Structure prediction request, 171 residues.
Amino acid sequence: MSFDIGSSPASTNISSGTGSTNFDDEPPFLEELGINTKQIWHKTLSILNPFRVKPDLHEEADLSGPFLFLMAFGLFQLLAGKLHFGIILGWATVASLFLYVVFNMLAGRNGNLDLYKCLSLIGYCMLPIVMLSAFALFVPPQGGIVLMGGFCHVVHSGLYRVAGRVGVVWG
Prediction:
């Protein structure tokens, strides 16, 4: 047995049994997991500009972006000295369930918002709160909470109007 790198045998692919060492034909890891980073980026930009909501962008629901935002929110809270990971995930789930039930009860048979899409929308709409939490690490919040709360309201109402295909609510 030699520990020289040049004399070691090439590693083999055990799952296929072919013995090939070419990884060029393998898909990227994030694509293999079903995480579309380009879509997460476009949805993030859509949340940051709530007056230009693209309805076709939020048709495909995913939970990788919202989970990333909620974990970032928990990390910022942890840096502030508060351990709230379970509370953040729990309240996001409860809020999604509540909005799912209320929206489908109001829409009746015309409601097309499923729970997975509702979880995705709630997670993406947490982005302004995540930004406030990061901002609060450096500057003590005084009036920014009301401003961010209003911004979150505009984002939520715009996205749910588009997701539920509700008529124009704003003037």
